[in-house]
Each structure stands twice: as C-alpha cells, then as structure tokens.
Amino acid sequence: MRFSGWRVLKEGLTGNKGWTGHWRDPEPKREYDVVIIGGGGHGLATAYYLAKEHGITNIAVLEKGYLGGGNVGRNTTIVRANYYLPGNSEFYSHSMHLWEGLEQDLNYNAMMSQRGLMMIYHNDGQRDAMVRRGNAIINQGDDAELLDIEGVRQRAPFLNFDDNRFPVMGALLHRRGGTARHDAVAWGFARGADMRGVDLIQNCEVTGIDVENGKVRGVQTSRGVIRAKKVALAAAGRSGQVAAMAGLRLPIESHVLQAFVTEGLKPIINHVIAFAESHMYISQSDKGGLVFGSYLDFYNSYAARGNLPMVEHTMESIMAMVPALGKARLLRSWGGIMDMTPDGSPIIDHSGIEGLYLNCGWCYGGFKATPGSGNAYAHLIATDRPHGAATKFKLDRFRSGYGLMDEEGTGAQHNLH
Ligand SMILES: Cc1cc2nc3c(=O)[nH]c(=O)nc-3n(C[C@H](O)[C@H](O)[C@H](O)COP(=O)(O)OP(=O)(O)OC[C@H]3O[C@@H](n4cnc5c(N)ncnc54)[C@H](O)[C@@H]3O)c2cc1C
C-alpha cells in the first residue's frame, strides 16, 4: 500500500475502509539467511537496508516485546550531525543525509523537522570548544554557526540569560539539526522491511545463541529454535546480556536515561536547545509538550525507569535556564536502558565468532544514528566489510586502546558520560 495525498482523499471519501495493516504477523520459519535480534530502530533499519540495498530478504527480526517498544519509542527524538571527532563526524553526517531523504525513501511520514539545534555555551572555555567543534563540523561538510548572546536572545527570548552559575553567552547553531517522530521512524522501517519480505516476529525473545566450532548456527527463542547463517545483534540496552549468550563479554554498562514531557502548550520553543552545563536539553513536540532531559542515572540498571536524584537535578537545571517552565504541568516521565561504552561511541563490527555481528554501544545518542547505523550494519553483514562511514566503530579499540573516540572529553570511563 502506497501512501499519498490522493490516497488520503480517496479513503476519506469512501469511509476509510481500504487501509491495511502496516506489516504482517508471520509465524517464524525454521531457518533464515539472517536473524536480527532486536526490533528497535537499528534492527528494523538494518533489515530494511539489507533487503533494499543488498537484495537479502530471507530475514527475521526477532523482538521480545512489540516493535518500537524499546528506546526507539522512548527517546527525545533529537537528530543532528554535529559531532567533533573523526569517526563519529563522518558517520553522523552519513546518517543525516539518509534522514534528509528518509520520508521519500520509506514513503512514510516520519515528521522530520529540521528546526535547528542550539548548543548553548556558558563560559569562554566552552565557547572555544564550540568554535573548534564548529570548524570540524564545517570541514566535514555539515553546517555550524557561532551565535553571540543576541543571536540566542532573538531565537529564544524566554531563556534566563543572567543565571549566576550558568550565564548564557552564546550558542553553536546547527540549522539542519532537529527532531523526527520516533515511533513513526520505527514503523516506517518496519513497513519498508515487511514490504520487501522480511519477517517481523514480535513476542519472540532470544534466550540463547548457538555457536559450533566458532561459527554461529542460529538462536534459541521463546518460540522455538531458529537456524540462521548470520545472526546480528541489535538489542541496545540489553546488548551485554544478549552477547553473553554467545560467551562474549562486551565493554558495555547499562544505565537508565530519563526524560520528561509537560502538558501540550502553544508553540513557544522553535529550536532544540541543549546546554553545555548539566547536559540538559529541551524542545517542543508537535503536540505541544515540552520535552526535556539531562544526565544518565549513574548506577547500572536494567530497569526502564529512573530514580529521584536525577529527577531533582533535571528539574533544578531546567528551572534555572527556562524559569517559565515552572508554570507548565508535568505530564509524564519515563526511562530507557542505555548501552554505554567507555568512550561514548558505538560498535558496528564482527564479533570474533563467524557469522555473528555486533551493533551496540549507542549510549544516549542512537536515535539520530538509526538510518546510518542500519545502513552501515547491513553493509557489514552483507559484504563482511565495514561501511566507509563506520570504519572506526571497532570492538578491538577497547582492548588495544588504539582508536578510542572520546567525544565528550570525559575520559574512557562509563560513569562520566
Ligand atoms: C530518555 C531517552 C532519551 C533519548 N534521547 C535521544 C535523542 O534525543 N537523540 C538520540 O539520538 N538518541 C536518544 N536516545 C538514545 C536512543 O533512543 C537509543 O540509542 C536507540 O534508540 C537505541 O537503538 P534501538 O532503537 O535499536 O533500541 P531499542 O528500541 O531499545 O531496540 C532494541 C530492542 O531489542 C529488544 N531485545 C532486547 N533483548 C532481546 C532479546 N533477548 N530477544 C529479542 N529482542 C530483544 C528490545 O525489546 C528492544 O525492542 C534516548 C534514549 C532515551 C532512553
């Protein structure tokens, strides 16, 4: 079924009886060429690009819950290509180019909104760091502009410019940054993969990975054994647990990241605004809710809910920077499990076991990576060579120490990211 304005008109005039489900609900087959563990954004995008660009369609995506019920449906929807370090910079640039054509490609409204992203700096040191970052982004071929305080005031007059601890001095503006509707992205990739013959199997938990003589043979699941020539992990916050099923110990810790949304309000915030202090950020959803968040909860956990100290910290920071927010009623808060690597950068690589591939370590930034990650991972699985934009996402860097990408300058230590 193709979506178009004509289709909407026709269905509207004929009682909306012609819409069909977006994907099938097949029984798992006994064997596939590729099994993908995890029906989040990355798993679904991988299946889509494997089918579309490499002609591999005998694929199952195995999801223990429902499609899009993980972090892809829990994030704060920020999309950007403003990374500083080689490795990350070219990858997120690649991903942004895919985002920019995604809705046409998928024939699906992902509500991509390039409303611009401002990263606020509060002191001279942060400004200098932003200048360096901006130059790196421009060298990569993406966009960055340094704004002074007046530039920020014009765009966001409601900010508190005179906070004693965190005065607003200016911002690095990334005009092509913005947001996309998270669950629509998952649904769009799911539909695109299904249309090309991929089996999307929900309520199917992988409980074991079968390896014989150093080669993967398939997976054990809550719906029986499924054999596969290749098995690809895309389990986000559960990556460490799933990899352990094949005897692997990944350099990943799982932490909770929380987010918050207020009641719907009239349009007030045009951009995504991130603050160099407090790791805090805020934007307004298309429904009008003010969506915001800040740091990780700094203890390891597999619970998709957070704790009060981080709620308190986030509320304190957001009230310092956007005092008017105090008048809005908070509607909901939630948490998701982040797969944190020591250097804050991801892994797309072979596992060391023949036929078993790894895609993990996206930390709190993997939504913006969704198309790029799926595209690069599909390339690796299909060709056994890394995609040109993802050559530095090697597992081995954590063993050798060579090639670490410490994007945030916090050191290769989980709990500082
Ligand atoms: C509050 C919050 C805010 C965020 N904000 C942003 C943001 O603004 N921008 C950004 O770029 N990123 C953001 N992120 C990070 C981003 O959401 C994640 O990095 C990304 O979604 C992870 O990839 P995924 O979509 O494939 O994960 P998921 O959607 O979590 O997919 C993994 C899937 O694997 C399944 N699974 C796990 N174990 C098994 C098993 N044994 N068998 C079968 N299935 C299994 C899970 O059920 C899950 O559905 C945020 C995350 C959170 C929680």
What can you tell me about this protein's structure?
- Helix 2 (41-54) runs parallel beside helix 6, helix 2 (41-54) packs across helix 9 (370-383) and helix 3 (88-106) crosses helix 9 (370-383).
- Helix content is 28%, strand content 26%.
- The protein folds into two domains: 24-112 and 178-251 and 342-416, FAD/NAD(P)-binding domain, CATH 3.50.50; 113-177 and 254-340, D-Amino Acid Oxidase, Chain A, domain 2.
- It has helices at 5-13, 41-54, 88-106, 124-140, 149-155, 182-195, 239-244, 308-321, 370-383, 397-400; strands at 31-37, 59-62, 78-79, 117-121, 145-148, 170-174, 178-179, 199-201, 206-212, 215-221, 224-233, 253-264, 272-275, 281-284, 289-300, 330-340, 347-350, 356-360.
- The N and C termini lie far apart (43 Å).
- It contains ten helices and 18 strands.
- The protein is α/β, with parallel strands linked by helices.
- The structure holds flavin-adenine dinucleotide.
- Flavin-adenine dinucleotide is lined by residues 37-43, 62-65, 69-72, 74-78, 205-206, 234-238, 242, 257-259, 293, 336, 362, 364-368.
Radius of gyration: 21 Å
| Class by SSE composition | alpha/beta
CATH topology of the largest domain: FAD/NAD(P)-binding domain
Low-pLDDT segments:
none
Let me know the CATH homologous superfamily of the largest domain: FAD/NAD(P)-binding domain
Averaging pLDDT over every residue, what do you get? 95
List strands and helices in order, with pairings.
Layout lengths: L4 H9 L17 E7 L3 H14 L4 E4 L15 E2 L8 H19 L10 E5 L2 H17 L4 E4 H7 L14 E5 L3 E2 L2 H14 L3 E3 L4 E7 L2 E7 L2 E10 L5 H6 L8 E12 L7 E4 L5 E4 L4 E12 L7 H14 L8 E11 L6 E4 L5 E5 L9 H14 L13 H4 L17
Parallel strand pairs: 1-2, 1-11, 2-8, 4-13, 11-18
Antiparallel strand pairs: 3-7, 4-6, 5-6, 9-10, 10-11, 12-15, 12-16, 13-14, 14-15, 17-18
Helix pairs in contact: 2-6, 2-9, 3-9
GO molecular function: nucleotide binding; sarcosine oxidase activity
Family: Belongs to the SoxB family.
Pfam families: DAO (PF01266)
